[in-house]
């Protein structure tokens, strides 16, 4: 009588990564709805008593991450301020991304990339592929080569549980000449972008992973912001907007707003306790309005 055959194991089931929108909702529920920019521009380095060099960049960045990575929901490093120092600056950025994520903060890379085809695919691989040293939880993108040009980034983000924030209604004075232009059906170009994002997020719970950038200084926009995704709101603090301005800009979409503050927090450095106190004050003011 032959021995019974040994059972064989089937292929391991690979669980898809948790979507960015779900992770963002969880961390903002736990830590509060604040995104802190990491913007080591020359004037801020000088205000901290640091040189405008790689050593100053590294000291600044490590101080911010060490002080706040267990406090804030999201960090938004501005890639350009690291890139200007070449490979050594990018190395500082890579370490900051890894350290922030290890401490439980999400990282939104503010790179505003926008291109077509294989070039867009390469940008996506740099920021949205988990094997990349610059992998971030999300990245900012520019859609003004056509929303379809973002498809490589959207697909890479989805495969890696990452997100995107697409420029829609920015607060810079030059923005309206493009974003307020109308298409054949009468919609503004900004609304076309928002409608594309809503389609990408359709059916996602508790929140889609494709966000829009909408300036907090804009006042009433008359745009439909119901995209079922996060709305990054720059412009608080030094640019003039405050928490009390958010309901007028975002209306019913207010619960999905991710306000971002840079100088309003960073000016309190380099003292770590002062940075943490500034974050807690900003968070308290935002929670009172957003929730």
TrEMBL record:
InterPro entries, per database record: Aldolase_TIM, OMPdecase_AS, OMPdecase_type-2, OMPdeCOase_dom, RibuloseP-bd_barrel
Pathway(s) served: Pyrimidine metabolism; UMP biosynthesis via de novo pathway; UMP from orotate: step 2/2
Catalytic activity line of the entry: orotidine 5'-phosphate + H(+) = UMP + CO2
Orotidine 5'-phosphate decarboxylase domain segment(s): 33-278
Enzyme category, top tier: lyase
Active site: 112
Keyword Ligase: no
Gene3D superfamilies in UniProt: Aldolase class I
Gene Ontology terms: biological process: 'de novo' pyrimidine nucleobase biosynthetic process; 'de novo' UMP biosynthetic process
CDD domains referenced in this protein's UniProt entry, alphabetically: OMP_decarboxylase_like (cd04725)
GO molecular function: orotidine-5'-phosphate decarboxylase activity
Family: Belongs to the OMP decarboxylase family. Type 2 subfamily.
Protein name in the entry: Orotidine 5'-phosphate decarboxylase
Organism field: Streptomyces chumphonensis
Gene designation: pyrF
